[in-house]
Amino acid sequence: MSDFVIGFVLGIPIGTAVGIAIEIAIGIQQKPWSELTEEEKKIRKNALSIGIITLIIGVIVFLSLLLN
Fold it and tell me: What's the half-sphere exposure (Cβ side, CA atoms, 13 Å) at 3?
């Protein structure tokens, strides 16, 4: 197997496990949207935007490596 396939096979479960652990840690102290201040809402929106941009960049890089 190539290094790419091994990295992909290992990266998916590790990334999933880390994502679940982070969500559990953050979700415990999370307030409903209606109780957030405007500053907290702005921080959440910015974090979501950064996460989506990072995801899109990761997909583009993955596809470029896969197709070359």
Answer: 1
